[in-house]
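This part of the workshop introduces the protein records we will be handling. A learned vocabulary of local backbone shapes supplies the integers on the structure line. Getting from the letters to the tokens is the skill we practise here. As an example, a complete record with its sequence and its structure tokens follows.
=====
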Amino acid sequence: MLAELATFRETVLDGANLQPADTVADIGAGTGLLTLAAAERAPDGDVFAIDVSVDALEELRRISTTPNVFFLIGSADVLPLPDESLDVIVTRSVLIYVNDKNEAAREFFRTLRADGRLSIFEPINRRNTRLADVVDFGELHGRVTEWERARYGDPDDPMLNFDQRDLEQAFNDAGFTDIRSDLRATERAIPPERTLNVVGAPGRLSLLAAWGEDFPPQTVEQLAAAVRAAGPIRRTWPAVYLTAVKP
């Protein structure tokens, strides 16, 4: 996991082409995966760590000893920054929490200076391997297939209602140029109990809890038994690295 996070960080920052005196915003900074490394790459600039979570920013402020890092409460679609105040925007797994990705793209455009750069990483959850494709659910296979089709096709779920082409279109419509996206897939073998019980992101339900909302208890037990019988489940998790420039 640490190696994977390091890959996310370095690929995003390499895509941003950071210069020593750049003014940078890490939007959805969390506890600083990108912020702290950006501050090292732009030692003569300023780095704004922006997040909706006060707790995350407090933790980042506690661990950061870098004098050029500043902390702001805000979201990707309502940035607490003036027009044309940034050279670079970076994000990691942020737009999956934003309902209006077009508004976020416009905010990024507004706050960047001419020739400003954008570099982001976003999971493309819509293209995750479906569980029904890798687990034998027997007579319940059709019900799981339909359940997953409805879940992954939910137009109101910001984590599932877009792919890399939608992101490209959002940034193109906002005015960005030189938009480049690199879709990559990570394959992992996930133990059954992790598949069933781990919460993938804050505010989300575990698979067992989600099944519990839509299936009777006996059916949930049958589905869970099928997952456990399958052993480690190999699935693919696509994500996109996207870079763009404000002309």
